[in-house]
Amino acid sequence: MKIKTLTIRNFRQFFGEVSISFSTDEKASVTVIHGENGAGKTSLLNAFKWALYGTTDFDTNNENLLSEKAIAEASPNSTIVMSVTLEFDDDGATYTAHREHKFTKGNGLHAESLGQSMLSLSYIDSAGLSHRSSNPGSQLNQILPEDMHGYFFFNGERIEKLAYNSASTQIREAIKGLMGLNILDRAERQLKSSVVRHFNKEAKESSSGNLAALYDQHSLLTDRIQEKEEQLKGWKKNHSEIELDIEEIDKRLDSIKAIAEKQKLRRELEAQIEQINKDKAAESFSLKKNVSERGFLAFIDAQLNDVKDYLDEMRIRGEMPSKVKSTFIDDLIELGKCICGQPLEPGSDCVKTLESYKTTIQDNGVEEQFMALFGVMSHLQSEREALFLSIHESINKLKDLADRRKHLLGRIDELGEEILGVGDSSELESRRVKLKENRKEFNDNCAVGQHQKSEWEDEAKEKEKEIEKELAKTNQADLSQRRKQLAKEVADTISELHEAMAHQVRTDLSEKVDGTFQKIMRKDYWAEIDEDFTLKIFKNIEGHGKQPVLEKSTGENQVTSLCFISSIVNSAKEKANNPGIFQKGGVYPIVMDSPFGALDPEYREKVASFIPALADQVIVMVSKSQWRGEVENELSKRLGKQYTLKYHKPDKDGDEKFEYTNLEEGFYG
Q1: How much is the average pLDDT of 513-521?
Q2: Cα–Cα–Cα angle for 267, 269, 275, nearest 5°?
Q3: What letters, b where the CB count within 10 A reaches 16 and e where it falls short, cover 441-453?
Q4: Strands (E), 464-577
Q5: φ and ψ at 64, to 5 degrees?
Q6: The pairing of beta strand 590-593 with beta strand 618-622
């Protein structure tokens, strides 16, 4: 995909019609748009998003998108049109996406919306034939997935979020989405839901009585499981987004000097809480495993004593174990001499007496079994004592962890109250508290939902067993049942393939990320996407080996995130050039707003030098201070086009009462 032109009409401060064309030259692939703060760079970035998906990243979302100047200059009751038109090339075709929203001018600066925004998509294919899409939203989503747009249209000052520990879910989803692995995800869901339901319905229609009722019950459980999976997916997504917001607030709190020490201490305590939770989970698992595998020992005390008493009685009576072994008597007779020195002649009374003892000795391995059983009884008693000791230790450890957690939570709450009382941090802390409440709610929902889903899955398995028994009783050869089972087996295989491919892509991307990262970073660090799909920075500490870099600057986070984006876009392009069965990839542009704001001069120069290599087309929006010097020197080498946003502020003493921005080709700094 290469963007050719963007035409904006009455969108935010862009009054009237403003059009911009972008460089599509492979050797001069960079288009730079200059604009000071407030000139409209963020509005321009959101114009792309609104045109393609009907959404924006403004704090007010899609409210107040219509130009105030357009409202003011419209005649009463007239129609005002706000629109964005995007023309781009993709896979040999030229597309024109047009979204518009109509309003009616009311009193003052009020404009009434006339329904929802409308999207249209037309294109000319590689043969020169014109088409109009009947499903424009779906077709655009196939070209540039909506849930992935944040990696192509992003605010450079916020992109650092990708380097947060809580961004692992986003990293995983980005890898799956951009590498085309979602096709496997959809196939698995389709097989487990729609296909299974179809075969259940088919089987029910050919059944009657109890078998039909069982199919009904199984279908109901399958529907419940599917609904709960969708709920869990939404809750987990919300939980992940809240985690990112909390981490961003923490970064901002870290920068407030008055509470820096308190914030640092709180984060340390929260890290301890996290470790306690992990230790508690591990100890609880160990306790449950211990009880499930060895719990029977607690209930066999009486039986152990009864058997032990019986064996002791046999021993006292001399029945077990035998005092003289049969083989010992045979050896004496063969030797011809007793242990007392008396000769043992064949057929003599002495020999007959010895042989008579053999008839009273137990054989057939009974004695050996007696000795083994005696040893087992002693072992079981020792194991029983060890079980109670282990349970006692686990309970004490869990109690100690709970006490420590309670104490730490109390101290964290105290620090929160202290931070809340500081003016500069009060609002941020209030938001943080609310977000943590919301996070707990989603976490609780996930826990309860997962438990319900597991119970329904167990019930569904039981119903399947009942169905199989019923089919066996009636001697029905149920083809639908066999097909359903085959569909589930295929779904499980796809799931395993999906996970294996995701991890392979993760490994390949990790190498790419680190390769770019080390070219930019001046410290002896390296970057990885770890097993949990978290983007991390590591360093070597003498005597301790590989250690994560926990305290990273905003600039370091931005560099890490940019390295990830460049790597995933590059990998998607490689897959597009050499598509596989599942991984299709794609060629994507990158549009970035203010990617240099938090970087020092050295990092600015290095980032600017590799930005042209990010994608086949790069559109960069910068302020004058970000452009001058290192960035200008590097980007000019691949510069195709540049524009300047001219902001016109309201003039109370003049005729102009409303702000607006127009666009001029070239750089007027």
Answers
A1: 85
A2: 105
A3: ebeebbeebeeeb
A4: 526-529, 535-541, 545-548
A5: 60, 35
A6: parallel
d(CA 152, CA 504): 23
What 3-state class would DSSP assign to 514?
Answer: helix
Position with higher pLDDT, 252 vs 50: 50
Report the pLDDT averaged over residues 534-549: 85
Q: Between these two residues, 129 and 625, which has the higher pLDDT value?
A: 129
Q: Which one is predicted more confidently, 363 or 563?
A: 563
Name beta bridge partners: 119: 99
The single-letter code of the amino acid at 319 is: E
Instruction: Give the Å distances, CA to CA, from 556 to 386, 560, 648.
Output: 52, 6, 35
Give the whole-angstrom CA distance, residue 522 versus residue 518.
Answer: 8
| Reported pTM | 0.69
Asked if residue 340 has pLDDT above 70, the reply is yes
CA dist., res. 605 & res. 534, Å (int) = 27
More confident residue, 358 or 232: 232
Q: Which residue has the tokens 């002693």?
A: 378
Residue 203's identity, in one-letter code, is: A
Residue 32 pairs with which residues in a beta bridge?
620, 642
Assess contact for 82 and 70: CB atoms under 8 A: yes
Pull the structure tokens for residue 20: 């911009």
Amino acid at 125: D
Are 52 and 641 in contact by the 8 Å Cβ rule? The answer is no
Nearest Cα to 167, choosing from 251, 78, 92, 232?
A: 251
Digit-coded pLDDT (tens) for 36-57: 888 889 899 999 999 999 998 8
Residue 122's alpha-carbon distances to 83, 84, 94, 128, 200, in angstroms, are: 16, 14, 9, 13, 42
Q: List, as one string, the DSSP characters of 564-584.
A: HHHHHHHHHHHHHHS--SS--
Q: Which helix (H) or strand (E) holds 445?
A: helix 423-474
Can you tell me the distance from the alpha carbon of 310 to that of 297, in angstroms, rounded to the nearest whole number?
20
Length of the chain counted residue by residue: 669
Could you write out the DSSP letters of every residue in 11-71?
A: ETTEEEEEEEE----SSS-EEEEE--TTSSHHHHHHHHHHHHHS---STTTTTT-B-HHHH
Structure tokens at 504: 């392979």
Angle between helices 209-254 and 196-205 (to 10 degrees): 160
What is the mean predicted confidence (pLDDT) over 597-618? 82
